[in-house]
Amino acid sequence: MPPAIRFDGVAKRYIIHHQRPRSFQEALVNMVHRRNGDREVFWALHDVSFSIEPGETVGIIGPNGSGKSTALKLISRIIEPTSGSVAVAGRVAALIELGAGFHPDLTGRENIYLLGSIMGISGREMDRRLSAIVEFAELERFIDTAVKHYSSGMYMRLGFSTAIHVDADVFLIDELLAVGDEHFQRKCLEAIQGFQQQGMTVVLVTHDLPLAGKFCPRTILLQQGHLLADGPTAGVLQQYLEVAAH
Ligand SMILES: Nc1ncnc2c1ncn2[C@@H]1O[C@H](COP(=O)(O)OP(=O)(O)O)[C@@H](O)[C@H]1O
Ligand SMILES: [Mg+2]
Fold first, then answer.
1. Best residue for ligand 1 mutational test, from 70, 96, 205 (most atoms within 8 Å of Cβ)
2. Which of 49, 153, 166, 197 could in theory staple to 119 by disulfide, Cβ–Cβ 3.0 to 4.6 A?
3. CB-based contact 210:219 (threshold 8 Å)
4. Ligand 1 centroid distance, CA of 44 (Å)
5. Residue 36: which of 60, 15, 62 has the closest Cα?
6. Using one digit for the tens of pLDDT, what is the confidence trace for 11-28?
7. Could you tell me if the CB of 64 is within 6 A of ligand 1?
8. For strand 83-88 and strand 5-17, is the pairing parallel, antiparallel, or unpaired?
9. pLDDT of residue 37
10. Domains in the chain, ordered, with CATH?
């Protein structure tokens, strides 16, 4: 069987656009930093290689800005690598950014059908799944409200619930669980355990180290775009705490 996810020498470059310098000082600062005033090249990932087998649950940890979300966006093909290759076997459901994938002017119900169609599920099949999605999300009263009026917790519940009902093989979660309340977090974690039992591949980006310890036998540590460690979670968490202390 091919790996569920394979990164081979993956690098990702962003171009950051700055405003033009408005003063002599700003121009001087730009010179010192070798910027040309409005454009800076930034490498969010450097030569990252790993592979994840079907059915694994893998944590990704690292300080802010270390490239975790960039890695998940590459897996879900929201962005393309600048060099190297990303291969993913199977269908990906991603819970990456609040609202990513949702259309703000559409209602919860309309967004559920939209995501279903993106995942290749017919409207009729989504009709059958709708009540389970709404019930899990506990959004019965708000399902016909435009999602731009949702709170961040409601967004997350709709996103999580839809994502777990669209037959994905690979499930990506980026920190978002922290947005939910205790009760919903517990439901999410139970759902994730269900996926693990079904042999689904799960990638969990989290700052919650005990959570990584509990759910992920294996963890990848990123720092400033470099893969610093990849292995059994306990050892990688230890290494992260040492990195974080410096
Ligand atoms: N679209 C973008 N344009 C420019 N820089 C970006 C963009 N997205 C992310 N970055 C930068 O790339 C780095 C890694 O970002 P990210 O992958 O979101 O980190 P993490 O999720 O680990 O906090 C950060 O320094 C961030 O500012
Ligand atoms: Mg992030």
1. 70
2. 166
3. no
4. 6
5. 15
6. 999 998 876 667 888 778
7. yes
8. antiparallel
9. 57
10. 53-244 (3.40.50.300)
